[in-house]
Amino acid sequence: MDSALLKVDEEKARHVKRVKLRELNATMDVQVELSRLDSSLKRHTGLIKRMRQSLGTDHRDQIIKDIDSLSLEKYIDEIAGATLEGIARCKTEKDVWSAVEVISALHRRFPAAFTPPLISSLSTALAAPSRAALSALPPEQREKEDSARVSRQRPLLRVCSELALVGIITDGRKRSGGEWIMKVLRELLSNDPTLSSLPLLSIFLKSYSRPYLGLTPPQSKQISAEAEPGTLSSAITNATQGEFPTLLHEGEELVEQEIRDRFKRMCEGYFDSVSKKLTIEHKRLQDQDRRNHEAYIRSGEIFEDRQQAYEKMTKGYEKLLASCQTLSELLYLPMPSLPTVSQKSDSIQIGANAISGDDEDPLANSGGKWEDEEERRFFEDIQDLKDFVPKSVLGIESDEKEDKEVAEEREKAEKEKADAEAKKLEEELEGLKLDGDPVNGRKDGTAEVEMREKEPDGTITPTPTSPAKASSPPLSPQLAPQGPSQLLTALLARLPDATNRVMIDQAAIDFAFLNSKAARKRLIKFLGTVPKNRTDLLPHYARFVATLNRYMPDIGAELVALLDEEFRYLQRKKNVVKELAEVRLKNMLYLSNLTKFCVVPSHLVLHMFKVCLDDFSGTNVENISMLLEGCGRFLLRSDETRERFGTMLELMRRKQSMQHFDQRQILLLENAYYQCNPPERTPRQLKERAPLELFIRHLIYDVLAKKTIDKVLKLLRKLDWDDPIVQRALHKVFTKPWKIKYGNINLLAMLTYDLQRYHPAFAISVVDQVLEDIRRGLEQNVYSTNQRRVAAIKYLGELYIYRLLGSVLVFDTLWSLVTFGHPEGHPLPRQPCPMDMPNDFFRVRLVCVLLDTVGMCFDRGTQKRKLDNFLVFFQYYVLCKEDLPMDVDFMLSDSIEAIRPKMTMYKTVEEAAVAVDDMFNAALQNAGLSTGEDSGEDSDEEGERPQQQDEEDDDTTGQESSNEDRTPSPDPVIVLSTQEHLGPSEEAEAEFEKELAKIITDSSAESRKVDKKAAWWDSAVLAPNLRKKRADEADVDAGGDNNPDGNSVMQFTVITKRGSKQQGRHLLVPAESALAVHTRSAQLQDKVEQQHLKRLVLDYEQREEAEEMKALEVRNRVGAIKIRYVG
């Protein structure tokens, strides 16, 4: 109550301001002395610039001051344009009123020079957009254009509404501008099939419903559902006026009573149309939801395009619902009742014999008349011409009068009720007709109430329209100066190109305006002479005939008679088989499509079927097959023809079993029969799963996405991992990557990596199962599992990227893909292999998928050499196949170019074989050098063993050794382990111990003071010159020399001291002596320990760095960024 009274007070304050400004504008007594006005260019330019920026409250005082002090005569046009730009920047109510005051000041000074061009510019800016221009734009661009237009026109409409109230925009002398505003709004709403101009009406009603419509806030917003849209607002207004003090007397109103009533009826009619549109969209949304549910039951998933269409439809419905609710609140009208359809489980048919819940015929339970929803819409959703064409053109007024007279004779009570409703409806129609704007001079006004827009999906969009805009299609052909004959010729020339539903429906509307007896004859002749090779036109021509047949029945009857005569002629020419085969096909297809549109009488098509069945041989077998394929399903499931056509089908099956047909005819008949009457199938048995398993599958298959991976991980961790049922369900889901979207496989691998921290055994089992699936695929090589194999290979690569397995397994898999199943693991050119035939290129695809996934990781160190070696052998493997298909060739070239863009590509098998031999020879020769040399700089993040290359080279050496057409490999180099040379033998060790004990026993007292833990040869300190000399000769000391006698010796340095000066003397000791052997052993042990300490330090640093990288990766995972760090 308080809020309503507050609104009334605010409205009174606005009314007082408008009345004062209106009186001021009406006096026009502006006295200006021209001599005192400033005419400087600088001040005029500043004023225009300031007006372009905004006419709001910030610049109001300065602008009005300049208007009163400047001459302005020479700049009227520029000021009018600047005013239009400044209005567009007025956002608030204060800014709008400021702009009105500025315009009023200019109006009072220049009523003839300024006001008319400004009003003309405002009218142009508020004009409705061109439909042709909008229809040419794509939907996204059209939506952007509508949004920009609405935001541009919103402040203009508010300012114009105020100008009409203050006497600047007028409909005539001593009249307000209400008619002008109503005309602008009508044009905007009538030319808006997408309802994009609804926000403009809402903005207008929020601020100006009281002065233009006479609406005042009700005491309560509880509105009865029984109230009708045409009378509710007036009733509420009357009730409100009883509760509140009278706001204004009629003499104080700024808009005439007649205009207010017409304006209110127009808005209520528009709300009624929007309500109908909302109801239609609500039903469409429910139908689409039901179809999505059925599709989900049938296929187990909802395809992405269907899901996107549903989301788009939902978004549009919610937007329309919000707009309708806003209008309902502003007009104080009740919302329409939206039907709620409960989805029953028996409405979803699974299989052919699903139980529908009612006592229908079993034939109907196996499927409806139509194969899918699209076919049903094509044959059943036919437009009604009276929605687009005047009744006088269709000639149906006399028929309606006759029907009304018959109804009056039958029941007078019904007549009186119908007359009362008709009178009421006529009054509402007459009220809306008064709003018409006879710009184009059209006399027919039957389409003034609402405009029905046919959208691409076949739904109707009702919006109020003006008489100038009657319907979605034009009411008459655009080439008006031409005669009917030329227009009909152009229409018939367009028909062969009308290959969709929208074009053929438009052609039917165009023909309705050219309707005459001569035109119908020409049309029938044209439709009866369709080229025999254009059978694709027949369904559309049948729809064209069905659309016209409702109001021009002679078209359908004469065309059916023409086709019947052609059928009889073909029956007489049964012996002419090849020459008339295409004519028979066209005749049967034409009749079948017309039958499904109910243009051909059922008795006629059944008679044709009986004629062909009586002579069940030759061309009649093909005729029956085409009839069954064309309209057999429709006839068998229609209530009118079900029994008779079912009997004929049984008779046909009996004759087929008794007569002898060739294989082609038998195949034709069987296919046609089962197409119109498919066999009964048992419903697909759904696998029963525990609720917990269903929850896990829902998380992985439905919920898992980049934005939800953390949520899924938390929910999975909360499961009872000790429960074997949970473990089995998780193992199934995580080891079947082919059941999720291909783009989500990396997310599944990321989840496995995250779970590996808490359940390492689970991650190991997943990797084992994936490797086993890849191996099984290589062994079985079944075509139906190819998609699974691609997903498994992709999954394996993603598991490597997330460090769940090492590069050893990746390279093992790569080599297995190119060698498994071949004799001795050696592919031979063009040689058949049961598991990998030369014309089977699927393994090439698998290798490319794996290379695309992990190839970029092998770009340095040992892994780079391994991948280079594999790519050489992979080229040889590819060349052993037959010529690659184009798609596989492109896939291969793209994969290699991505990881090795400069790699040499071999053209022949011989070149590749030589390269493979060279690669293996180089690998064998470098095998000894590579062992033990790979330090931490070459090891990747998994810490794999450096001997991996040697093991793979040793394996592949045996594969290549049997190739007889290539040069033999050199003798294998035997590489002994370096551990054998790290110390002396056991005998030398025992001898050394004995000598050492003897030296210790015979040493002096000073020698016993020496720390026995330190070796005596390391206790002495060398002089700097000796140390440098010894460092220079370290290689000689470590490796040993050969003396002139040819014996291997080791060089020692004996330190002597004379006074305070140290001297060194070289001593050659035989390498076989205990001292030399022990010294060598100690040196090697020190070197090994040094290397070990170095590796420990490097590993410690790498672990710390890996932990930092891992923490950074966890932080970045929220943004779904996959980061791989190479140490």
Question: How does the SSE layout of this entry go?
Answer:
Layout: H1 2-27, H2 41-53, H3 57-69, H4 76-87, H5 93-109, H6 115-125, H7 131-135, H8 139-165, H9 178-190, H10 198-213, H11 232-243, H12 257-299, H13 304-331, H14 362-365, H15 373-380, H16 391-394, H17 397-410, H18 412-433, E1 451-454, E2 460-463, H19 484-494, H20 501-513, H21 517-528, H22 538-549, H23 553-572, H24 581-596, H25 602-614, H26 619-637, H27 642-658, H28 663-676, H29 691-703, H30 709-717, H31 724-734, H32 745-756, H33 760-780, H34 786-801, H35 807-819, H36 842-854, H37 861-880, H38 886-899, H39 909-925, H40 927-930, H41 948-960, H42 986-1002, H43 1005-1008, H44 1016-1019, H45 1024-1032, H46 1034-1039, E3 1041-1042, E4 1048-1058, E5 1061-1070, H47 1074-1116
Antiparallel strand pairs: 1-2, 3-4, 4-5
Q: Estimate percent helicity.
A: 55-70%
What class do helices, strands and sheet pairing give? mainly alpha
The number of helical runs is: 47
Task: Tell me the fraction of residues in β-strands, as a range.
Answer: under 5%
Distance between the terminal alpha carbons, to the nearest Å? 73 Å
The spatial strand order of the largest sheet comes to 3-4-5
Mean pLDDT: 75
The Cα radius of gyration reads: 47 Å
Shape: flat
Strand tally is: 5
List the uncertain runs. 220-245, 342-366, 398-408, 424-481, 929-982, 1004-1020, 1034-1042, 1118-1127
Pfam families: MIF4G (PF02854), Upf2 (PF04050)
Biased composition (Low complexity): 461-482
Subcellular location: Cytoplasm
Biased composition (Basic and acidic residues): 401-457
